[in-house]
Amino acid sequence: MRKQISAKTKWLIVIAILLAAFVTVTAATKTGGWGEQLVQTVLTPFRSSASALVRQVERYYDYIFKYESLQAENQTLKAQIISMEEGVRSADSLQRENERLHQLLGLATEHEDYHFATAYIISWEDSSWKSAFTIGKGTNSGIHEGLVAVTEYGQVVGLVTAAGSNWATITTVLDSALDISATVASTGYNGVVEGALATGSEGLLRMNYLPTDSVLRNNDQVLTTGSTVYPRGLIIGYVTDANFDQTGVAKYALLKPAADLDDLEQVFVITDFNNS
Amino acid sequence: MLKYFYLTKRQWLGILKWSLYGLLTLLVLLLQTVVLSPLSIFGAKLAPLPILIVCVCIREGPEKGGVYAILATLFWCLSGADFGNLSVAVIPVGAMLSAVLCQVYLTKRLLPTSLCCLGVSWINASAIFVFKLILPPSLAADNYWRVLLPGVLLSMLFMPIHYALVKLIGRIGVRDAL
Fold it and tell me: Which fold has domain A180-258?
C-alpha cells in the first residue's frame, strides 16, 4: 500500500501530524488562543441561532405531546400547595421571629453583594468525557475566566474556564477537573467536591476527604465553604450515599447535583461578590 | 487585468461543490454541538462529524479530500473539541489512508466507506480515551466498553445520510469534466 500513496498525500500526512503538534504546543503554552477566539467568535451567531431554533421546536413538542402529563402534574402540585399552605401558616410566626433576629444582629440581606450576568446556553461539549457548555455572552458582558455560574435558585452550575468577546465556556460541576471546597450544611463537615464521571458514576458528584467518624444522612445539603472563586453558601448538591475511600482513612460521599443540568437553558454568572 | 479573475464553468462548479461541503460540515458541527450534545445514550455522546470528514475524503480522494480533512478537523478542534489537537492528526491521516485503501483495493460504495468511517471514528475515540486514561483525573477503564463503543456504533447511524449527501454533492461538475 505504501507505493500507492502519492508524494502529495505523504506531504499532507506530515502536515497533519505537524499541525497537531503545533496546536498541542500552542494550547499548552497558551499562545494559540487567537485561533480558538476567531473560530468561536465566528461560530457563536450560528450556535445562538441553532439553539434558539431547537428551543422553539422543543416548546412546540412539549405543547403537543406533554399537555396531558402537564395537566396531571398541575393537579399534583395543587394538592401539594394545599398541604404546604398549612406549613406556611406555622412558618409565618417563625419567619417573623427570624426577621426580627436578623434586624437585631444587623445582618445584611442574603446575597445582596452579588452581581449577575444572565446568558443562554448555545452549545454543549460533544465529548463523553467532559461536561461543559458554551454560553452566548463573554468578555463584552463582563464574563471572564474564573467566575461561577449558578441557577436562579443559587445552585452551583459550574465555572467559566474560557471566554471570548461573545462566548464563554462553562465547565460544569459534573466534570472531574473541577474541585470545590464544600461543607455539609447540617453538620459542618468539610471536604472537596468533584465530578464523579472519572470514577464511573455519571451524573453524580463526589465529596472527598470527609472525616472517618463523620455521620451523613441522605439528602443532607452540601454548600460551598466560600473562597476567592466561590461565594459562601451556594448549594452544590444533596448526599445520596457515603462510604470509606480506598485508603480507609477518609470517607467520601456521593451527591446528587442540586442544579438540574439536563434541563438547563439559562445560567446566571456571578460577575462580582464580596468575599470578605 | 480582468482575465486573471476569469473562471471557467468547471472552476465555478468546483467552488460550488466545496462550498456545499463546507456548509454541510458547519451544519453537522452545529447538529453535534447544539442538538446532540445535551443528550447522552448509555453515557455516550454522538459524534457524526468525523464520519462526514472520512466520507468526503474517500469521495474526493486522498489529495483534495486530505486538504479538506485537515481544514475541517482543525476548525472542529478550534471550536473547542475535547482533545481536538489529537483529532487533528488522527482523523485526516485515517481519512487519507482510507481514501487510498478505497481507491486501490476497495470501492467508494456504502459498505467499504462505512467500514473505513467506523475504523477511523473508533481509532480517534480510542486515542482520546487512552490519553484520558493516563492523564489525571483518569477515567475508569470500564468506560471503554460501557461508553466509548456504544458511542462510536450509535454515531454510525448517521453514516447513510452523510454518504448520500456527500455522493450527491460529489456529482457536481462530474458530467462537465467528462
Answer: Thrombin, subunit H (2.40.10)
